[in-house]
Amino acid sequence: MLKQISILGSTGSIGKQALEVVDSLPDHFRIFGLAAGANIELLKEQVKKYKPEIISVKDEQVALELKKEIANVKILWGREGLTEIAGCGENNLVLIAVSGINGLFPTLAAINNKVDIALANKETLVSAGNIVMERARNNNVSILPVDSEHSAIHQCINNKDINQIKKLIVTGSGGPFREKIYSEIANATVKETLSHPRWSMGDKITVDSATLMNKGLEVIEAHWLFGIDYKDIEVVIHPQSIVHSAVEFKDGSVIAQLGIPSMHIPIQYALTYPDRYEGLETGSLSLTETARLDFEKPDLEKFPCLKLAYEAGIKGGTYPAVLNALNEEAVYAFLNGKIRLTEICKLVEKGLEVHTSIKNPNLDDIIHSDNWAREFAKEFLNKITVS
Amino acid sequence: MLKQISILGSTGSIGKQALEVVDSLPDHFRIFGLAAGANIELLKEQVKKYKPEIISVKDEQVALELKKEIANVKILWGREGLTEIAGCGENNLVLIAVSGINGLFPTLAAINNKVDIALANKETLVSAGNIVMERARNNNVSILPVDSEHSAIHQCINNKDINQIKKLIVTGSGGPFREKIYSEIANATVKETLSHPRWSMGDKITVDSATLMNKGLEVIEAHWLFGIDYKDIEVVIHPQSIVHSAVEFKDGSVIAQLGIPSMHIPIQYALTYPDRYEGLETGSLSLTETARLDFEKPDLEKFPCLKLAYEAGIKGGTYPAVLNALNEEAVYAFLNGKIRLTEICKLVEKGLEVHTSIKNPNLDDIIHSDNWAREFAKEFLNKITVS
Q1: What is the pLDDT of residue A385?
Q2: Are residues A157 and A30 part of one domain?
Q3: In A16, A281, B197, B257, which residue has its Cα 20 to 30 A from B336's Cα atom?
Q4: Are residues A158 and A187 in the same domain?
Q5: Which residue of B has its CA nearest to A279?
Q6: B109 and B162: one domain?
């Protein structure tokens, strides 16, 4: 069966790999819509190749210029463009691979129009997990995770009753500073921070991997996606990144998903679910060549961001949205050389302390808290002098 | 829902553990029938506790004596006793935990009467996999594996289309001689051979674990249970016995089942399938306490039994039945001090060389080949002098 799909964020890391998956399974997919941010040249190539019916770019000006160049394609822009593509009933599935809070509105638009979602955007569930999951349930929309950890858990649960689950085991490589001491982490350069030992990803998520905030955001995401209590979600550091996550059932049996560290596998799984195809030649996992898998507890003293994320998740309300926004601002400040790596956590901690959370937040509450957090971060950053 | 079950081999290692599982889930099971071999005292205790409607023992004489002691229970004996219990339509499930070729006839009786089977007897599928699986399919009978490896694979496949499978990965601890050289294995005592590093099992299977014949029999069993080609079944040595086996799907994703090395988990899974319950306190797997998992290729030079089993499986016909019978006789000769451990393989190899296989064997062909192999083994053993 031909699936008609749209890819929001088609020129980013996940979007490009998703199109490689589509290339490898040409009989299974047709591209309905594409949306990109800054990389207009690549978007133009994609339009030529995949002939979508609708595209969207970030800026109105760029959209108007593109209209002169490209015929027979509906061209949109901005948040409204993303939302319109995601909500089109022509989609069998929309891949939300835009970053940050931008993922939230197209996700809700897809849900409202009963379009299934492959979700590669963490912030949507971290900030608004209660709203997104409730609406998805009510509209009978599937949210298929693209993150390797959540894809692993989805594969391990495999439609079993969640009452059979004892706990989720979310694995993480531990990032580039797993074996460093705190003072070394405090002095880490941007370049060192971006040298992830296992995964090649965008800059923001690579910094989050170095602080373990990424694992923390994943714990919150897993809580919402699978409906599991925080006390039953364990983070395990696994430097080889072969076991992508696991589920322990009540009878003591643990089901784990393994594979080479390649995003092609979880992306393809989300796009082809419930089927599996050979698809891309990503190479087979050889356990005997891998030879050894290690597991250890995360060090919360060295990586306090993970602790903060658990705390924000457990407290609930608008705390996770604030955690996410504070972190995002802090990470960009780090990437721009304004603060040290360890100051990311300090900024987040301070902001969470000051924040007045709203219980059972609605969408406005979440957006408001997100804005508040970004303002707080800016003020905090203005006070800091880079050493 | 209360499941009515019978346990054939209730006083053996698997049978006793199955009753522990039943004890832990008293609302889920009622014992309909029990069958035991030599341990009559334990059987009597079990009858008192579980109040089955029907029991069977090995010998007629014992059965007649029991009839004087036990009222209101139907008492049978011998192969016919096993077969009658297994075939009773009152069973929702029968656990076949008798050893050797004795498992075959009750298995077929259960299938004929549309009773689902929890199969803990390897020889049934190794010797007569073609017949058993075809009849089970025709009668829509489920065969739920109890072996930890096959239970793991069953959990990993989880009803997915087998066309989505690339390969099965059958793990094994490597046994007590994994790190020994061949000459040490040749001189291994019975005691050393029975000191399995991970699993506490009966003597016969523990010897098979030391020669890796056990893995070979499991490969043949997996071939029949899951309908996978021998070339797509890989044996991986994994000394910690935490990953109990795995399945690689065509998209490169590997699903593995893990757990502490306890037979309670696969036994309970087979009895409660498709549900999972807390059941026995077997302890939870802690990946961080386990800390490290290793994987290596099996050494076929040191453990030629595994190679012989693959060859017999691929050749098919009556070769697997002969492999199994030759091995069984050889193992008992070793346990009785008549031959060295490495001579088990020599006997099996010789017998397979001489055997004239029958293609698409019927039940008579299989029984005949089994008998032939045991005669061959006896003659071979008569010629050998223990050094």
Answers
A1: 55
A2: no
A3: B197
A4: yes
A5: B251
A6: no
Nearest Cα neighbor of A304 from A210, A213, A180, A372 is A213
CB B103 within 8 A of CB B123: yes
Distance in angstroms (rounded) separating the CA atoms of residues B263 and A272: 36
Helix (H) or strand (E) holding A327: helix A319-335
The pLDDT assigned to B387 comes to: 47
Tell me if A257 and B254 make a contact (CB, 8 A cut-off).
yes
The number of C-beta contacts closer than 8 angstroms across A and B is 141
User: What is the predicted pLDDT for the residue at B385?
Assistant: 55
Kindly report the nearest CA distance between residue B254 and chain A, in angstroms. 5
Per-residue pLDDT tens over the stretch B293-341: 999 999 999 999 999 999 999 999 999 999 999 999 999 999 999 999 9
Contact status of B335 with chain A (Cβ, < 8 Å)? no
CB contact under 8 A, B292 and A290: no
Domain identity same for A160 and A47 = no
A84 domain residue, yes or no: yes
Helix (H) or strand (E) holding B8: strand B3-8
| Average pLDDT estimate for A62-76 | 96
Number of separate domains in chain A: 2
Structural domain including A174 reads 150-315
Query: In 3-state terms, what secondary structure has residue A147?
Result: coil
Q: Which of A151, A166, A168, A251 to mutate to test the interface with B (most CBs of B within 10 A)?
A: A251
Q: Is A251 touching B (CB cutoff 8 A)?
A: yes
Looking at the complex, does the CB of residue A233 fall below 8 Å from at least one CB of chain B? no
B324 part of a folded domain:
no
* Alpha-carbon distances, residue B96 vs A60, B113, B208, B265 (angstroms): 71, 15, 20, 17
Inter-chain CB proximity A275 and B166 less than 8 Å: no
Residue B249 in contact with partner chain A when CB distance is under 8 A: yes
Instruction: Say yes or no: A140 and A269 in one domain.
Output: no
In this structure, is residue A335 part of a structural domain? Answer: no
- Find the helix packing angle between B148-157 and B213-226, rounded to 10°: 30
Which residue in chain B has the smallest CA separation from A273?
Answer: B251
Chain A hits for B284, Cβ within 8 Å: 166, 248, 252
Nearest to B259 among A250, A252, A293 (CB): A252
In a shared domain, residues B46 and B27: yes
Residue that finishes a domain, picked among B126, B145, B164: B145
Polymer length of chain A: 387
Give pTM, 2 decimals. 0.96
Q: The complex's ipTM?
A: 0.95
Q: Which A residues in the span 21-60 are in contact with B, Cβ-Cβ below 8 Å?
A: none
- Give whole-number Cα distances, B64 to A67, B53, B68, B73, B75, in Å: 95, 17, 7, 12, 8
Closest CA of chain A from B384, distance in Å? 39
Residue B193 has pLDDT above 50, yes or no: yes
* pLDDT tens column, B328-380: 999 999 999 999 999 999 999 999 999 999 999 999 999 999 999 999 999 99
What is the spatial distance between Cα B197 and Cα B218, in angstroms, rounded to a whole number?
19
